[in-house]
Amino acid sequence: MALDYYQVLGVERSASKDDIKKAFRTLAHKYHPDKPGGDEKKFKEVSEAYAVLSDDKKRAAYDAYGSAHGGGGFDGFDFSQFSGFQGAHGFNVNIDDLFGGFSDMFGGKGRERRGRDISIDLQLSFRESVFGAERTVTLTRDTACARCSGNGAEPGSKLVTCATCSGKGTVIESQRSPFGVFSLSRACGSCSGRGTIPEKPCTACAGRGVTRGKGDVHVRIPAGIEDGQTIRMSKYGEALLGGAPGDLYVTVHVVADPAFRREGYHLITELPIKITDALLGGTHTVATLDGPTTIDIEPMKSTDELVRIKGKGVPHGAGRRGDLVVRVRVVLPEKRSKGAMELLKKLRDEGM
């Protein structure tokens, strides 16, 4: 029975793209096989549902033909494996013409088959998000078999024509639908759509072309990345016999820093100073992400002023960086001695 993608993601049929994206991230994080309590089957279902519902064209086709709902639906008729069909009365029909690219939506004939995508989360310090970082993550996934280089054949043996599909890569099946009985083509299960099978299956992967296990992946985090952004690493997802590997999506979560906050390419920090320093001006040491530096502050005209330090912000482009904006703030003393009070009274008498 075909999956109801809306039920898989737990959203209404009227859900916005943002709602669908949020639901996918939550469930992908929950069911990821590398996490304790993960569920590989549910993770794949969630990924499949998101791949369809996040794309306007695919979603429209799915809403129209992909599941049994309302009156006169397809009564569970599942097109997800099929790429084209021939009418029961002898007329030829291209399923892409009839359904507006519906077969392409599911990786039908003419489109390269791909393995599953993988989504992971990485936590970064504020400094790492500004200057970039490198991480090594361990993933459990299907990768191309090292022994047979992913073709499924034992080294020294060859690939032969698949007897099931006669080398075509597809087989024909009859299906009943509201239009009548149709002959539909789908990828051959014996050869995974390749048209060939190993004469002698690889002893390491049993002819699957992929092996499952843990492996390290090196992730480069670019300088200036922001909280919530996602990095796409092409072909670092699940491998697939007869197809290209999926992609790896790394979502970054940045830990807030107590001393700095970010506004675009600029960094904001605070420098509390005494009243006397504000009135007289002076030189002060300021913390930056590059280390401490000194700034000269002119006698202040207000209790809250901004000083800009060029080139101490977030890197962007070739050799360019934003600025560090220092908010200079006058701090009142909690305790005042008798002598200090006398001096303040004299200042007041002078009109200050």
Overview of this structure, please?
This protein is an alpha+beta fold and 352 residues long. It contains nine helices and 17 strands. The strands form six sheets. The chain has a four-stranded antiparallel beta sheet with strand order 2-1-7-6. The chain has a four-stranded mixed beta sheet with strand order 12-13-17-16. Strands 3-11-10 form a three-stranded mixed beta sheet. Strand 6 and strand 7 form a beta hairpin. Helix 2 packs antiparallel against helix 3. The longest helix has 15 residues. About 12% of the residues have low confidence.
Strand content: 25-35%
Strand order of the largest sheet: 2-1-7-6
- The assembly state of the depicted protein chains is single chain
The global form is elongated
Mean of all residue-level pLDDT scores = 83
Q: How many E strands? A: 17
What is the H/E string? HHHHEEHHEHEEEEEEEEEEHEEEEH
Which class do the helix and strand fractions yield?
A: alpha+beta
* Tally of DSSP helical segments: 9
Amount of helix:
10-25%
Q: What would you report as the Rg, rounded to the nearest angstrom?
A: 31 Å
The stretches of 5 or more residues where confidence is low (pLDDT under 50) are: 68-110
What's the N-to-C terminus distance?
Answer: 83 Å
